[in-house]
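Please, structure for the following, as tokens.
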Amino acid sequence: MKKIIYILFAGMLFTSCLDKLPEDAIPADKAITTISEANQAVIGLYSSFLSSSLYSGALSIMPDLQCDMVYAVNGYTNTYGDTWRWEILSTNANIEAVYGSLYNVITSANFLLDYEDRLRRTITDDDDLDRLDQYCGEAHMARAIAYWELIRLFTKPYDEATADTELGVVITEHYNQGGEIYRSTLKESVDFLMKEIALAEEMLKLDDDYKPSTHGPLYSSNYFNEYVAHALHARVALYLGRWEEAAKEASKLIDCGYYLLSSASSIYSGQMSYFDYLWQYDEGTETIWKVGFTSTAYGGALGRIFFNYDYQSVKPDYVPAQWVINLYEANDLRVDTYFSVFTTGHTHGLQWPLLVKYWGNPNFSSQGILHMHQPKVFRLAEQYLIRAEANAMLGKYTEAAKDIATLRKARYTSYTSTPHLDAKTALQVIEQERVKELYMEGFRLTDLKRWHKGFERTPQSESVKSGSSLKVEADDALFVWPIPQHELEAPGANILPNESNR
């Protein structure tokens, strides 16, 4: 019964995203009294990431869809339509779901961590103590990921000079938090996030004698380890403008030897490259952490809105922007892995390159589960891009160019040169490379926000009229998502709104 409770409590719905379960649901004196029960709590923690509002759905799709990456086409179902049109309200159901699901992860982590000290005092076996360190490290890692997503989506771009006066997020460290619910400052929120990352890095540290040949590879893992923490650390440091720190953390992933870029020119099997295999079957040497799915436990279908395949035709809601397609060079093999031309089943019969990157893993589609992929939340390719940008901001253009060249060598039919980067060209090249590599993985909104850049849409073939002509200025209020209205109105809450709350 306890196992069922631990796995299912993460999926329960609350009147407020910050509410906890009723106090009598899991009696305090009976919760997590053994290392086995702690393990079950961790299973429940990982299961909270299966939410289709997180990486297998809205959290990955909406930040790119909101910007200039895709166009809604005539005949679409209006899924995410208000977000695409920038008609975003505090009652937006998808934003509510993202917010609630992230705090659900935090609640699950808090539940385990609240019982850590009590359980630790009862354990006498050294192996069990090591296991408890691992479990608690996983909880800190999950909590760090959730707080990072909340910070990047629901707060203004970080500026060290003003962070102590800007609104951050609600910090909850305990399952039974109690007291007034309010938003910390942005500085306090970031400081807490960095503390969580540091704890995860320490508690998930690999043994000195770890060898992939005997312990198994780290790549394509469904579980947290210290390198997942370093990957998040590098991502956050880049966002914060801490260039040396970002480059240092990215280097830990690049230089550790546990991960390798999946080649788009080397054959894995038949006509399938290692890069194809990464996206078709969700297995690859460059995946640092992915959300693990099975045929009986999975999240949302990332590719549904790009195909809506009904076994007869495809009727996509959204198609790639032409300017994105135009970025790829002729010998860039990402084009064939990411896109394929289809004639759609809409009445207008639009023929367009669709996002086959998310067509669906055959292991799921063979069982009638269409457009399903295991989200690859951290990849080595991103770390090369992080280090390149950080070094460019430090004026180390030669080092930055080498990382761009390394990534391109893994993606092109052949690439023997090194791009010339300087103060005028570096960020433009890196921005374009981020679009080409990370397309529809959820980075674009945050990138434009931290670069203080706007964008403009102009109509393309069969694009929906409302939304196709759109100009968004830099630092528009809706680069920061509104706090859900029901959170602002929750009893006992004193949560201040964002400028985008209207």
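Residues 1-15, 21-25 have pLDDT under 50 and may be disordered. The longest strand covers residues 339-343.
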